[in-house]
Amino acid sequence: MLNKTGPHIKEIHITPIAIVDPPLLNAAGLHAPYALRTIVELVTDDGISGISEIPGTSAIDAALAESRALLIGKDVFQLNEIRQVLIDRFGTDSAAERGETPWDQRKLVHIFSAIEVACLDIIGKVTNRPVVDLLGGKLRDRVPFSAYLFYKYEGAGGKLAFGTDPDAQGWAAARQASALNPTEIVAQAKAMCAEFGFQSIKLKGGVFEPQQEVDAMFALHEAFGPDVPLRVDPNALWTVETSIKYGKQMEPILEYLEDPTRGQENMATVRKALKTPLATNMCTTSFDDIPNSIRIGAEDIILSDHHFWGGLRASITLSGICETFGRGLSMHSNSHLGISLAAMVHLGAALPKVPYALDTHYPWQSDEIITSGRFKFEEGAVLVPTEPGLGVELDREALARLHQNYLTCGLTKRDDEIEMQKVQPGWKFQSVRW
Ligand code: GKR
Ligand code: MG
Fold first, then answer.
1. So what's the ipTM on this one?
2. Active site residue: 107, 125, 152, 204, which one?
3. Where do the Mandelate racemase/muconate lactonizing enzyme C-terminal domain residues begin and end (predicted)?
């Protein structure tokens, strides 16, 4: 019997897009009115299309374009070979290339993820199976997400920037409001939970001095009661002493404390001093980081992200490591649309355990790029798509419009410091602040 091969990659389309993003604050500054994503579409020699979405920068897009020649003609099932040719060409990212910002700045991991997810989408279509089945099969029908609160300036983002749409209703109206103190954070949480039904809450911290953020956490605890798990993420801006001081204050109310301080050693020191579990998407972010993390006990929970752990299958490998070494595993996010959400949901459905509701920025976005429109959340959870592949199709009209946004907005990479300087001239990112 002949071994079957193919389908083979015939075309690779790389489209940078810019999506409306409100003026959200974080440790690195302020979100621009548009967040950048890159949409990758692979088309096979028999006309099957597979798609993926990753954080966009012109550097990642250029490297993706460079990989085109290596990938054209490859069998989409040969994911190991595809990964190997990319490594042979580009090497691997070093841990230092991640950078000090809350988001990951490595290039290659994003490329692996973009190509792998699009190939899995195609393999799913060829085999008539949802991606979750290619990851070992579904362990749950719905994947739970957490509310993700941000301090923010008033404003809707996009063309409106700091302006607001007077006709907006419900969450669309609440999303425009400022949130600069505990009362406004509670109002944001109530509006977001009312719309999406989230049952856990995360606050992005590292914006104001720690006591104000701790006060916001207590205000959330007061407003939502003891049954709603709470997390806060200062994105490593606190010293060890600050982390221990405020971590102790919040011990009675936190489900976990995310990246209070910078680096595995500092995290390990804080972890020893607190009863609250520590989570990270900053100090243990690659397989190279795992041995030291285990040796010194840097965190309790790794917040994976298939976009920068090198794809969905790599994330399954990570889940095995976490299980072996007693680490919890959950998911981290950045501003994103429905292709990324679909991939996160397939992965979330395949993980052996989902003890913590996953992060998503999705409520902050109003655009969409899939023909089925915006994903619905029920009681904070998303139903796992059952259609072949990712179960979502590219909306080509939206792709063209969002690509035009990209061309018009002039951004080529995320730089929250520059955006913040437009509001507070001279503002500087400090990797450790309090
Ligand atoms: O979108 O501002 C943001 C977040 O700070 C994001 O970039 C982080 O990567 O959500 C992320 C986190 O949990 O650190
Ligand atoms: Mg984080």
1. 0.96
2. 204
3. 182-277
pLDDT digits (tens, 9 = 90+) for 333-359: 999 999 999 999 999 999 999 999 999
For 158-169, what is the HEC assignment?
HHHECCCCCCCC
User: Which ligand is located closest to the Cα atom of residue 359?
Assistant: 1
| DSSP structural state of residue 297 | T
Domains of the chain and any CATH numbers: 9-128+396-408 (3.30.390.10), 134-383 (3.20.20.120)
Kindly report, residue by residue over 355-410, the tens digit of the pLDDT: 999 999 999 999 999 999 999 999 999 999 999 999 999 999 999 999 999 999 99
Residue 329 and residue 315: Cα distance in Å, rounded?
Answer: 10
- What 8-state DSSP symbol labels residue 390? T
Pocket of ligand 1 (CB under 6 A): 24, 26, 102-103, 204, 233, 235, 281, 332-335, 361
- Establish whether 13 is a catalytic residue: no
Q: Which atom of ligand 1 sits closest to the CA of residue 414?
A: 7
Helical pair 108-127 and 58-71, crossing angle rounded to 10 deg: 50
pTM for the model stands at 0.96
CA distance 353 to 323: 9
- Identify the nearest ligand to the CA of 23 by its number: 1
The catalytically annotated residue of 152, 332, 336, 361 is: 332
> CA-to-CA distance for 340 and 345, rounded, in angstroms?
9
Clarify whether 332 is annotated catalytic: yes
